[in-house]
């Protein structure tokens, strides 16, 4: 992934927010195709893991520890 150091924290937070929103949507029981939505959430989770791995490579350059962006990483 080639993301600027300024955009890396935004990317992490955007993916995290997308996961939270889509989990809430899944729990709302308003979806017609739950299986497709679950698959999408799984894909977001894989993207999030990859983005966190990539972020760790530039973490010191960003000045923002990953643990501050993703509290469960503490």
How would a crystallographer describe the biggest sheet? Answer: none
Nearest-integer average pLDDT: 90
End-to-end CA span? 24 Å
Count of helical stretches: 3
Strand content: under 5%
Helix percentage range = over 70%
Order of helices and strands: HHH
Chain-wise SSE layout:
Elements: H1 8-27, H2 34-62, H3 66-69
Helix pairs in contact: 1-2
Task: Write up what this structure looks like.
Helix content is 72%, strand content 0%. The chain has 74 residues and is mainly alpha-helical. The chain has a domain at 30-64. It is elongated and about 45 Å long. The model has no long low-confidence stretch (mean pLDDT 90).
List keywords for this structure.
72% helix, 74 residues, elongated, single chain, mainly alpha
Question: How would you sum up this structure in a few lines?
Answer:
The protein is an all-alpha fold and about 70 residues long. The chain has helices at about 10-25, 35-60, 65-70. α1 packs antiparallel against α2.
């Amino acid at each position: 992934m080639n993301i600027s150091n300024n955009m890396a924290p935004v990317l992490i937070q955007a993916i995290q927010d997308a996961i939270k929103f889509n989990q809430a949507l899944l729990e709302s029981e308003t979806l017609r195709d739950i299986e497709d939505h679950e698959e999408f959430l799984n894909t977001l989770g894989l993207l999030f893991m990859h983005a966190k791995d990539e972020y760790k490579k530039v973490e010191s350059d960003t000045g923002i520890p990953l643990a501050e962006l993703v509290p469960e990483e503490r």
